[in-house]
Design goal:
Helix content: over 70%
Structural class: mainly alpha
CATH class of one domain: Mainly Alpha
Distance between the termini: 40 Å
CATH topology of one domain: F1FO ATP Synthase
Number of helices: 3
Number of strands: 0
Largest sheet: none
């Protein structure tokens, strides 16, 4: 497992180092290219981490709700109502992360 993690970290570092060269084109300064390349990488990582966190949160919530209904079926409606509200709050965090990533990707100081 440690070898696999190290391999992913090395691959990410190589990608982060060579990404500005992949986006290189004439007519733009190095600062503009570096900003755009880092914005793309940052947005990908940001939405990935947001999806990971919200997925874990939703899985835990559904698991605990199923356990609660299994232990006491009489409170099924109350648990279901709280579960739906909780899942909506968790999903709003993922949508917020997506909006922030879109803003970072398309609104930049260089007007690329």
């Amino acid at each position: 497992m440690k070898k696999l993690t190290a391999l992913f970290l090395v691959a990410f570092m190589v990608m982060a180092i060579f990404a500005p060269m992949a986006f290189a084109s004439e007519g733009k300064t190095d600062a503009q290219l570096n900003y755009y390349a880092m914005a793309v990488i940052g947005c990908g990582l940001g939405i990935g981490l947001a999806a990971l966190g919200t997925g874990i949160g939703m899985g835990t919530a559904v698991s605990r709700a199923c356990e609660g209904v299994a232990r006491n079926p009489g409170v099924n409606n109350k648990i279901m109502t709280m579960l739906i509200v909780g899942l909506a709050m968790i999903e709003s965090l993922a949508i917020y992360a997506l909006v922030v990533d879109i803003i970072v990707l398309f609104v930049n100081p260089f007007g690329i």
